Amino acid sequence: MKANSPPSIIATRTFKLMIASAMLATLHPLPSAIAQEEALPQVDRIDVTAEPFNADPTGQEDSTAAIQKAIDRAIQQQVEPETGLTRTQQVLYFPEGSYLVSDTLTLRADKGDDPRASQISFTGDGPGKSTIRLSDNSPNFQTGRVPVLVFLEGSRSNIAHQNEVMDLTIDVGTGNPGAVALEYVANNVGTIRRVVLKSSDPEGAGDTGLWLRPQLGGQALIHHLEVHGFKIGIDINHQVSAYTLEDILLENQSEAGLRNDRKAVAIHRLRSINHVPAIINNHAEGLVTVLSSELSGGDVQTPAIDNRAGSLVLQGVKIEGYGMAVDNRGEIVTTLPEGLWSSDAPVGLGTMPTEFLPVRDTPEVPAAGDADTFRVDTDYINSYIEANNGANEAGAIQAAIDSGKTDIVFERRRYELGDSLIIRGNVRRFDLNYGALSPTGGKMQRQGNPVLIIEDTVHPELLIERCAYNFSGGAHFYHIQNDRHKTLIIRDSMFAAGSHIYRNSGTGELFLENVFSIHRSNESEDQPGWIFANQNVWARQYNPERDTQNMQVIKTPHTVVDGGRLWVMGYKLGEYDGPYLQVTNGGVAELWGGFVNTIGGEVNEQRAMFVNHGGSMIVSGVERSTGTINHPIVLKHADGEQILHVDFPYRRGDGIIFPLIFSSFSQ
């Protein structure tokens, strides 16, 4: 059935405006954008105040050259001397203090003419404690748009993996109207966390707080960010991919709180205090999805949200002080309903949901002190193997897990595993520190065993974080077997490649934050990457990929919700052949604000992006295609009904925009 079907299939505009969300009754007050939480443990880092850099933390001397020298050293150290492998994560650490700079700090990639810097972390002791401050009235920041810190010298990148800014303030000082506090890019996985971008100028002088400019930029999770002052708080440019924002404070901008051009942007808990529009959506290809937010201040002549083109999806958005809620492509919406509102009529099969999944925040797992931390490093590994004849690296790591310590923190390197690791006992945090677990030998490479088997531990929550990627193409291992009935959190991690990624027998809650994966199917082994079986899952910045370039027939989806509940805020699905998401056995999936990358693959008239086999789903998103329509069906229903690709407006080339689609079966 096509998208221009009768009103029983497609929600009308009147119906759309009246949808009520039961979730509103359980909304928590918006927290401060910067949470008071302990910073992640930092090891293997470059201290910018140490020799030979000697940046001045007192703010008295210009530290531009010293910090740039530290950045250049980090880029040089990304090549491992023993293996020659590149893109090893580097962490630049700013101890508590104020660091005065007078010119742009740039990640100058040490790769010939390639300007695509990746896997760089800037971290401090917390916003308000560690501050990079631009000197007042700096000559280079008077006109144009000039960043204080820029991640990319060129205009585009697709390898800027795991770029991070955490626990810092960047202050553009006073009298610098052309200053941009931070120009940032990440691809697939990256994060900005607990960061303040500010102008100390009495008039808020400065061009932009956060500039997400480069082409192909995204995916990344921007979490706990405050922007004070500037013309534009957050400016998002160019097409392709998406950004995910949560717990954002925008205050005292002079033109717009957030301005989006052509990307898919998902926002949860935005607090804007402004007289100008909190959000401007500029381009027909842009999609902005906003959940549980407060937009206040306002002006009687100004809309809180100015949707000049493109599409909006709003759920639980409260507006105070503005003369109008939304200028929707010239149509004025004075007030929003208590619940869901879309700039475009939802398109669906079955009945439009009127109640939505409850939203759960990712639990915080506190870092342990030294006494409760086990440091896995080369010295420990070698000593264990020497003392235990015939032992291997997997055995040494398992002994660390079973040591009784709560936190297992790794030296940043590659670890060769001939056996699965079982996380059990007293472990509460398993921090790879951007290291990689590399399956080796027949037991892992050919027998289809998991890298990590996760059992119930003493603690109610278990955190796995900062796993770097390991491309072991063609192997039959998989990454995670989750047998926990307690909560599991996976954060800031890349899993590649293996035959698939995740399976569970335990039904404890699962939280995914800033997670990328890629699994490789072949003719003999075509499996979904992630199967969530009878499990509640909350995901922020979820990015599963599958490589199917050598396959003739694709049978399985990338992600399966099998009787469980999946809530996603910000996603990228793809690449190559779908289907990308399947719901079955009464499962429920909500995907708010994301991007489907349908590049490559084979044209198949029966292939759908999304499949519903007896559950329900609601999705807001956009598609990027590279010239052929590989998925003529957007959403396929088990009863044979379909939502077709040709019934949606095109964004660019053969990509489409689908602001709100749904599918459900009558109960």
What do these coordinates show?
The radius of gyration is 24 Å and the shape is globular. It is 6% helix and 43% strand. Strands 1, 2, 3, 4, 6, 7, 9, 11, 13, 15, 17, 19, 21 and 24 form a 14-stranded mixed beta sheet that branches. The chain has a twelve-stranded mixed beta sheet with strand order 25-48-45-43-41-39-37-35-33-30-27-26. β46 and β47 form a beta hairpin. It is mostly beta strands and 667 residues long. The two termini are 21 Å apart. It contains five helices and 48 strands.
Structural class of the secondary elements? Answer: mainly beta
Strand content: 35-45%
**Overall residue-averaged pLDDT value:** 87
Q: Determine the N-to-C terminus distance.
A: 21 Å
Radius of gyration: 24 Å
Q: Count of helices?
A: 5
Number of β-strand runs: 48
Low-confidence stretches: 1-33, 35-41
The main sheet comes to: 14 strands, mixed
Helix percentage range? under 10%
The geometry reads as globular
Relevant terms:
667 residues, mainly beta, 14-stranded mixed β-sheet, 12-stranded mixed β-sheet, disordered N terminus
Give a quick precis of the structure.
Helices cover 6% and strands 43% of the residues. It is built from five helices and 48 strands.
